[in-house]
Amino acid sequence: MRILHYIHQLKSNDLLGDYLRHLVSALKEQSEVYVATRESDIQESLDESNPDIVHIHGCWDRYAYKLMRGAVRQGFAVVLSPHGEIGTYSMKHERYLEKSAELVAYQRRMVSQAEAILVTSDDEKNSILSLDWQKRIDVIPASILDSSITDEEMAKRMLWFYGKVIDTRYRRMMTDSEKEAVRSLMHVGMAHDENMALLDSDRILTLRGLKPDQWRRLLLYADDEDLRYIFDNAAKRMQLQIPAIDTSKISRYPTDEPKAMGELPVDRLIGGNKLLAHKLKDVTADDPEELREITTMLVNARTLLRKRQMSMRHLAELYDAIKYVDYDESRLVDISKDMKLRKFLRRMLQVLADEVYLEEGFMPDNPLNDSGERTIKSRLLIS
């Protein structure tokens, strides 16, 4: 792991400086560690270290904010340790006017935009929580202030904290080959007939060449998108050796936008919209059950997408219904027009073609590639 620490000034006989020296010395036993100050060339520090984590120490420092902006813009994970400089007492009784201006200019954004906050005591954690700027806060005591923890234990817990941050933001670290692996695993795992679960040689080589850290991200993705059963089926069919990674034991922060788990309902509408339910009932009153179910799935998928809760499992279930259920395709198009669903249906067909390789011969309507389809992808797929 590569870690870039930032401190505004590394002084001797200074409590914060001594803390960082102890931490860096212990971390160097297990990771690559770099230190930057406000005298450093920030971009050069980022380029040289290419860090997995940027750890900013201290607050009320415009140079720290400049580093954070640049690091976030380039996709690095940034964590912040305020070291007692944020909290209701500190902000009201220490440089109140200056801090009020700095708060508006940048400090609140620094706290809220950090991947997580690392503090040294429960009191400091509770003080920051009371501000309601950031909820991802962990506590690791400082060895130079607390005799119950050694430098080595502090570093060990710090690496756990960094790992938690990295595992929480795993989507942003997924490579193009990993995203292609998701599509391939879904395509193979969803096929009803093994003879139809075919991939070209490049995709097969990509799957067989995945490393343990890549599988770790893929399995976390499968958990969050409720896809594990599909991935397992694909691995069995292709005889892929998935590393024994127990994702339930991987520490992560709760996601801000969790996906809805479980099946996409086929017999009821999500959200309790009675008018929409009556309209669906009237429009499909004389249609067979399979058409009513597919239409219900489409309406529910649209509802979940608007809430940013539709999962890739739901996409897989739409794929399964559209490809394998025997239904009247022209009638589904007519129903989609009556339900004002046709554009959504066409956009979903484009998504299904791009992401799980739905073939043209199974499409009931012409796929639509427009800004609406791209919005669907941005809400549904890997960010």
Strand and helix layout:
Layout: E1 2-7, H1 15-27, E2 32-36, H2 42-49, E3 53-57, H3 62-73, E4 77-81, H4 88-93, H5 96-113, E5 116-119, H6 122-129, E6 137-139, H7 151-168, H8 176-190, H9 201-208, H10 212-224, H11 228-238, H12 274-283, H13 289-306, H14 312-324, H15 329-338, H16 342-356, H17 371-380
Parallel strand pairs: 1-2, 1-3, 3-4, 4-5, 5-6
Helix pairs in contact: 1-7, 8-9, 8-11, 13-14, 16-17
Radius of gyration: 26 Å
- The dominant shape is elongated
| Strand composition percent | 5-15%
Query: What's the CATH topology name of the largest domain?
Result: Rossmann fold
Number of helices: 17
Describe the structure.
With 383 residues, the chain is α/β, with parallel strands linked by helices. The chain has 3 domains: 2-168, Rossmann fold, CATH 3.40.50.2000; 173-249, no CATH class; 274-380, no CATH class. The chain is 54% helix and 7% strand. It has 17 helices and 6 strands. Strands 2-1-3-4-5-6 form a 6-stranded parallel β-sheet, with helices on both faces. Strand 3 (53-57), helix 3 and strand 4 (77-81) form a beta-alpha-beta unit. Helix 1 (15-27) crosses helix 7, helix 13 (289-306) packs antiparallel against helix 14 and helix 16 crosses helix 17. The radius of gyration is 26 Å and the shape is elongated. The mean pLDDT is 90.
